[in-house]
Design goal:
This protein is of the alpha+beta class and 76 residues long. The protein has one domain. The protein is 16% helix and 25% strand. The chain contains one helix and four strands; from the N terminus they run ββββα. Strands 1-2-3-4 form a four-stranded antiparallel β-sheet. Strand 2 and strand 3 form a beta hairpin. The chain starts with 18 loop residues before the first strand and ends in a 7-residue tail after the last helix. This is DUF397 domain-containing protein. InterPro entries: DUF397 (IPR007278).
Length: 76
């Protein structure tokens, strides 16, 4: 039995997404925002919400956050 993964959302479909701002922003407008899209998550710059968001699988987002939480400064 094969399982088909959910379709990756397109950037133009994010206008109705519920965006959350980082709690580390302290109310400033200089941080990232994230939207939960089920199997995916979208990340955007809070200063430029009209620019394209980055859409990542939940596991890729977890890997990225773990990488920086471990004190890494560069990918690769």
């Amino acid at each position: 039995m094969s399982t088909i993964p959910p379709r990756r959302p397109r950037a133009e479909e994010l206008h109705n997404a519920h965006w959350r701002r980082s709690s580390y922003s302290g109310g400033a407008n200089e941080c990232v925002e994230i939207a939960d899209l089920g199997a995916y998550a979208a990340v955007r710059d809070s200063k430029a919400p009209d620019l394209s968001a980055v859409i990542l699988s939940r596991s890729a987002l977890g890997d990225l956050l773990a990488h920086y939480a471990d004190g890494e400064t560069r990918l690769g």
